[in-house]
Amino acid sequence: MLIILVLCLGSSLAQEAEEAEEAMIARDAAPSADEVVFSPVAGGFNRPLFVTHADDGSERLFVVEQTGKVWIIKDGVRAEQPFLDISGLITGTANRPYSEQGLLGLAFHPEYASNGRFFVNYTDRSGTTVVAGYHVSLSNADIADAGSGGIIFQLLQPYANHNGGHIEFGPDGYLYISLGDGGSANDPLGAGQNRRLLLGSIIRIDVDGALPYAIPADNPFVGDDSALDEIWAYGLRNVWRFSFDRATGDMYLADVGQSLLEEVNFQPADSRGGENYGWNVWEGTRLFAGGSARDHVPPVFEYSHSLGCSITGGYVYRGSAIPQLEAVYLFGDYCTGRMWAMYRDTDLNWRAEEFANPGWAISSFGEDEAGEIYVVDYSGTIYRINPARPS
């Protein structure tokens, strides 16, 4: 297969190399898809968009349906009733052939095992982005307390697309939220480069410091009158899944392109935030609208629309079942079903190779508590990536 030399190096790679004994960050070769199989875990879901875990020792998987339900899978069996059902709160999606609205994200508090708190990201019936916090039921660990919901963040959306929607707690314990540029096409609001708007950014908030939330004191634009305090990174079109490498803390952001290029952006763990990933001055490494993008950080990988049309971000493999995948970032394309394996070689250059093409509508990837990786087919099935030859 064609090896693609990816586009740039993170500023902290030398430091990361010194820590390589603690966490593998480089490889001498690409992995082979012959070393893995995609095993169905459960099916019959209605427009599944995400799968994750609660990190509570239960080994349960939680599957997010765009239409408003969260289901539990335990020991390969889906529960008889949903963990959470907020279908009455969200924009209707069930009868539409395609929608970017609905229930889009789920994140469990780092101390969920003791406090029972979790958060969802959805578009409400007016199309507004909402992040709300809930608690698990005190009497049943497999059911959420539907009456415990409380909105912590809202953002009016000017259009029905580019809502972002992913939420995840970082290694620092703060909640990160992806917000698209507001929608339509070509960023008509100029949101990507406007730090006075939250659209087109990743924001970072403290859900424990105050009600509804606090601003971390070390957010990059705190005290800067030209930018909003919540912003962690900007210049993004519509990040569809970001993730943190559980071994290093590095952040990977998959940003859906406009007309030509899909891209993966990288933020090293020692970043202090504030990166400008270029949209809409840039689309990938191509000038798009032109003009100036202050402190532009180019992507580490891009692919053209000859190979796909909508990137789906994934995870760096840190499980134990498939050592051949160690330190590989796996991601895919929703339109074509292609998957790529991206990694750093022994000279710490980024490289990527097409890994597999199961042909699914890849709406998400996910991790379980052990770091094993799952793939979500929007048609309704969750797959686990397993070793082709179990040891």
Account of the protein in words:
The chain is an all-beta fold and 391 residues long. It is built from 2 helices and 28 strands. The chain has helices spanning 13-18, 112-115; strands at 4-5, 36-42, 48-52, 61-65, 69-74, 77-78, 84-85, 103-108, 117-123, 129-136, 144-155, 167-169, 175-179, 201-205, 231-234, 239-244, 251-255, 261-267, 282-283, 286-287, 301-304, 311-316, 329-333, 339-344, 350-356, 362-367, 373-377, 381-387. The chain is globular, with a radius of gyration of 20 Å.
Relevant terms:
5-stranded antiparallel β-sheet; mainly beta; 391 residues; disordered N terminus
Summarize the structure.
This protein is mostly beta strands and 391 residues long.
Write the layout of secondary structure elements.
Layout: E1 4-5, H1 13-18, E2 36-42, E3 48-52, E4 61-65, E5 69-74, E6 77-78, E7 84-85, E8 103-108, H2 112-115, E9 117-123, E10 129-136, E11 144-155, E12 167-169, E13 175-179, E14 201-205, E15 231-234, E16 239-244, E17 251-255, E18 261-267, E19 282-283, E20 286-287, E21 301-304, E22 311-316, E23 329-333, E24 339-344, E25 350-356, E26 362-367, E27 373-377, E28 381-387
Antiparallel strand pairs: 1-25, 2-28, 3-4, 4-5, 5-6, 5-7, 8-9, 9-10, 10-11, 12-13, 13-14, 14-15, 16-17, 17-18, 18-21, 19-20, 22-23, 23-24, 24-25, 26-27, 27-28
Classification by helices and strands: mainly beta
Question: What are the secondary-structure elements, in order, as H or E?
Answer: EHEEEEEEEHEEEEEEEEEEEEEEEEEEEE
- The N- to C-terminal Cα distance equals 27 Å
Summarize the biggest pleated sheet. Answer: 5 strands, antiparallel
Reading side by side through the largest sheet, how are the strands ordered? 1-25-24-23-22
Low-pLDDT residue spans: 1-14, 16-20
What level of helicity do the residues show?
under 10%
Q: Please tell me how large the radius of gyration is.
A: 20 Å
Shape: globular
Give the total of beta strands.
28
**Count of helical segments?**
2
| Mean pLDDT across every amino acid position | 94
Quote the beta fraction. Answer: 35-45%
